[in-house]
């Protein structure tokens, strides 16, 4: 649905903020700025006719509250056999900031009903084979007493695991369990988040409080003039347009890279992008959904990117409950699902060609993995689901296309899995590159962006930021009491049992 709220500023007066891209990142930054600077004029521009239908959509790989409770790629095993939980702790801390901001917005009426976007769902890690069982036990030992991972349980007992998630044991025989041991961790502190719904909720409250939203409007170019203002050019149903703004945020998913390149800021030089697509299997069959109330994550295949860690998920979307399994990796040169086949090729510049070549040569295992996934038959792909749920029936599952992800290639040729905030030296423009766990940690990412882009205002913003996100700047790892208080407050505000 095309939504327009026309700007009432004088024609020659520049905007304070232009947000490019109608996803969770722009919505989150817009709400933060609106709370910190209520008088600022904000305009959000979305290329498509609807919000959050790319990376933020619930079926586009952004449907879990990434808090590292179950995602094993955030706690790798080191060469000496120990498990490094540094990344897991960092992701969890970031997600607690998200919960706090959402709680503040609920308490202040900007989010009328948290049940529209967030639900309690147990998070599980599930593995098989002696080596993986040993790894999961070590991971559990490293996390079980941590203040950000309370109540985590571990078991190798099939009956206990069956009690947590019956589908995982359905079809496993005593003989198979004797030959291949299994293990799982379980915690009821996990959530399922519909970031598409949350984006719509936040954007509505942005507009209600005076922001201008224009969908069906594509930004085609932008540049900065000597007076410091950014000139944003685009086209919509009425034709071409031109805006001026003091600050621009590019939260356009995969299109952030080409737009930042068009802005010609020095900080984007050397950066490239590698697009990865994917598919999921989905079922809404009531008897299956009823037997799996959890997000169960396994271990990624060798060479697989972190976004390809297999998982069998409970999903709440538009009031209905589903199960989704995947992802199955694929490849397309598009930077968005609705993008162009020329996206990758047009993003290549003299300054990023060498880093992209280096990234390709040093990630041959990823290339091999993607080729295997592309060549795999539907029967072979379904076998991956049967590793989790041996009794799965192909007739119960449908295939859906996941969102496009553009992995960051850094100027040093490193293929980076995660997110990268790019800010101009003068702080007047910023953009976000990369993928998971982006949506779940959007408030933390945006706080970092605000500090970098508005250093002269950062100190004066602290009282309001502490009201919105009490633990921002605090160390919950070193303060178990603060962690416990944060969990209790946000559980209550967000109706999480």
From TrEMBL:
Task: Report the EC code(s) recorded for this entry.
Answer: 1.1.5.4
- Catalysed reactions, semicolon-separated: (S)-malate + a quinone = a quinol + oxaloacetate
Task: Indicate whether Flavoprotein appears among the record's keywords.
Answer: yes
Q: What class of enzyme is it?
A: oxidoreductase
A single GO BP term for this record reads: tricarboxylic acid cycle
| This protein's UniProt keywords | FAD, Flavoprotein, Oxidoreductase, Tricarboxylic acid cycle
From the Swiss-Prot or TrEMBL record, what is one GO molecular function term? Answer: (S)-2-hydroxyglutarate dehydrogenase activity
What HAMAP family does this protein's entry cite? MQO
* Similarity comment text for this entry: Belongs to the MQO family.
**What is the protein name for this chain?**
Probable malate:quinone oxidoreductase
Q: Which organism is it from?
A: Nocardioides albertanoniae
Query: Which gene name belongs to this protein?
Result: mqo
């Amino acid at each position: 649905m095309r939504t327009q709220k026309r700007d009432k500023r004088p024609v020659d007066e520049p905007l304070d903020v232009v947000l490019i891209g109608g996803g969770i990142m722009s919505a989150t930054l817009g709400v933060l700025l609106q709370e910190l600077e209520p008088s600022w004029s904000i305009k959000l521009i979305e290329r498509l006719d609807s919000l959050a239908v790319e990376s933020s959509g619930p079926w586009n790989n952004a449907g879990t509250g990434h808090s590292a409770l179950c995602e094993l790629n955030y706690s790798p095993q080191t060469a000496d056999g120990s498990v490094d939980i540094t990344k897991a702790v960092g992701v969890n801390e970031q997600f607690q900031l998200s919960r706090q901001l959402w709680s503040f917005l609920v308490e202040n009426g900007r989010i009328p009903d948290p049940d529209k976007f967030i639900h309690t769902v147990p998070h599980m890690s599930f593995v098989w084979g002696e080596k993986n069982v040993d790894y999961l036990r070590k991971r559990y030992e490293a996390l079980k007493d941590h203040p950000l991972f309370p109540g985590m349980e571990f078991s190798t007992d099939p009956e206990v695991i069956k009690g947590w998630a019956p589908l995982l044991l359905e079809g496993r025989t005593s003989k198979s369990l004797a030959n291949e041991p299994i293990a799982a961790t379980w915690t009821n502190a996990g959530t399922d988040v519909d970031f598409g719904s949350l984006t719509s909720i936040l954007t509505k409250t942005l507009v209600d409080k005076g922001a201008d939203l224009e969908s069906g409007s594509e930004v085609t170019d932008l540049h900065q003039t000597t007076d410091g203002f950014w000139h944003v050019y685009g086209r919509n149903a009425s034709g071409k347009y031109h805006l001026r703004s003091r600050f621009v945020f590019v939260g356009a998913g995969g299109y952030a890279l080409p737009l930042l390149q068009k802005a010609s800021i020095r900080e984007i030089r050397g950066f490239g992008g590698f697009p990865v697509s994917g598919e999921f299997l989905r079922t809404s069959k009531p008897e299956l959904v009823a037997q799996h109330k959890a997000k169960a994550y396994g271990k990624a295949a060798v060479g697989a990117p972190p976004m390809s860690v297999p998982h069998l998920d409970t999903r709440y979307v538009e009031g209905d409950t589903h199960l989704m399994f995947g992802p199955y990796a694929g490849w397309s040169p598009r930077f968005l699902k609705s993008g162009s086949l020329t996206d990758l090729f047009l993003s290549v510049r003299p300054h990023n060609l060498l880093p992209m070549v280096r990234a390709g040569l040093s990630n041959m295992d990823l290339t091999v993995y993607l080729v295997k996934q592309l060549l795999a038959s539907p029967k072979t792909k379904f076998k991956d689901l049967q590793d989790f749920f041996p009794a799965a029936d192909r007739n119960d599952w449908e295939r859906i296309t996941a969102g496009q992800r553009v992995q960051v290639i850094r100027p040093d040729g490193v293929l980076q899995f995660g997110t990268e905030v790019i800010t101009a030296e003068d702080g007047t423009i910023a953009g976000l590159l990369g993928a998971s766990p982006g949506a779940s940690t959007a408030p933390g990412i945006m706080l970092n962006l605000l500090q970098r882009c508005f250093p002269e205002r950062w100190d004066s913003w602290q009282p309001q930021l502490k009201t919105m996100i009490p633990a921002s700047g605090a160390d919950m790892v070193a303060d178990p009491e603060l962690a416990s208080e944060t969990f209790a407050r946000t559980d209550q505000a967000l109706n999480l049992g």
